[in-house]
C-alpha cells in the first residue's frame, strides 16, 4: 500500500477554509483524514474538544514541543497551534491522505520536513471581502479582528510558498478545484510507486 499524501491547506483567517474543506473532505475517492491540531486558544462556542482542536494549556503545549511530539507548530495572534506528529504518521501509513489546515509558518516547517507535501493556499476574491467575512463572524473583539486583518495581509504575501493557489469566490467551485488537484497527485504517486 502507498503511504498517504500530506495535504496542507492554508489561507488567511476568514477566507472560508472550513467551508471549502467541508465540501470535499468526505469525498471517499480522496481518502482524506483531517489532522486535529493542538491549540492554546480559547474554545469558541460550538467547537468540540478533540474534533475541531485539542484545547490545551500553554504548559501542556510547551511540553509537547519539548518532547518532539509535533510535526510543526506556530504562534498565531498570541496562541500556539501545532500538528501532532504521531497521528499524522499513523494515518499516512494506513494509506490515508492527511489534511492539515494550518497557517503559513507551519507550512514552511512541513515543507522542510516533507518536500513532497501538496500545499494549497486559498485566497479571497478581494481583501475587502475578506474583512467583511472576518467581521461577519462576530465572535472576537475589535483588537483581535485588527490583528487577524494585519496577519491576513502578511499571509497573502506568502503565497509563493505554495504549489497551488485557489480563489474562494464560491466554496463549491473552490472545493471542486481542490478535488481535482488532490486526485491528480494521487494518480501521480500511484504511477510512481
Ligand atoms: P483559528 O483560531 O481561526 O481556528 O485558527 C487560526 C489559524 O491557525 C488559522 O490560519 C489556522 O489555519 C491555523 N492553524 C490551525 N491549526 C494549526 C496547526 O496545527 N499549526 C499551525 N501552524 N497553524 C494552525
Please characterize this protein's 3D structure:
This protein is an alpha/beta fold. The chain has one domain: Rossmann fold, CATH 3.40.50. It contains 7 helices and 9 strands, in the order βαβββαββαβαβααβα. It has helices spanning 17-24, 58-66, 85-93, 104-113, 127-137, 142-156, 171-192, and strands at 6-10, 32-34, 37-39, 53-55, 70-76, 79-84, 97-101, 118-123, 164-167. The protein is globular. 33% of the residues are buried. The mean pLDDT is 94. The structure holds guanosine-5'-monophosphate (5GP). Guanosine-5'-monophosphate (5GP) is lined by residues 13, 37, 41, 72-74, 76, 81-83, 101-103, 105-106.
Kindly list the characteristics that best describe this protein.
9 strands; Rossmann fold; 193 residues; binds guanosine-5'-monophosphate; globular; 4-stranded mixed beta sheet; single chain; alpha/beta; 44% helix; 5-stranded parallel beta sheet
Amino acid at each position: 500500500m502507498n503511504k498517504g499524501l500530506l495535504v496542507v491547506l492554508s489561507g488567511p483567517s476568514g477566507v472560508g477554509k472550513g467551508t471549502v474543506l467541508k465540501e470535499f473532505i468526505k469525498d471517499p475517492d480522496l481518502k482524506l483524514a483531517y489532522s486535529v491540531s493542538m491549540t492554546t486558544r480559547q474554545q469558541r462556542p460550538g467547537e468540540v474538544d478533540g474534533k475541531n482542536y485539542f484545547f490545551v494549556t500553554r504548559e501542556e503545549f510547551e511540553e509537547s514541543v519539548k518532547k518532539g511530539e509535533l510535526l510543526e507548530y506556530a504562534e498565531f495572534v498570541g496562541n500556539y497551534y501545532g500538528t501532532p506528529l504521531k497521528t499524522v504518521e499513523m494515518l499516512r501509513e494506513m494509506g490515508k491522505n492527511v489534511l492539515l489546515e494550518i497557517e503559513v509558518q507551519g507550512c514552511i516547517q512541513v515543507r522542510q520536513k516533507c518536500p513532497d507535501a501538496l500545499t494549497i493556499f486559498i485566497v479571497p476574491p478581494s481583501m475587502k471581502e475578506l474583512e467583511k467575512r472576518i467581521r461577519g463572524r462576530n465572535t472576537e473583539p475589535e483588537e483581535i479582528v485588527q490583528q487577524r486583518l494585519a496577519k491576513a495581509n502578511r499571509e497573502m504575501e506568502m503565497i509563493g510558498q505554495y504549489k497551488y493557489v485557489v480563489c474562494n469566490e464560491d466554496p463549491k467551485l473552490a472545493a471542486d478545484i481542490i478535488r481535482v488537484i488532490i486526485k491528480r497527485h494521487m494518480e501521480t504517486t500511484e504511477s510512481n510507486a
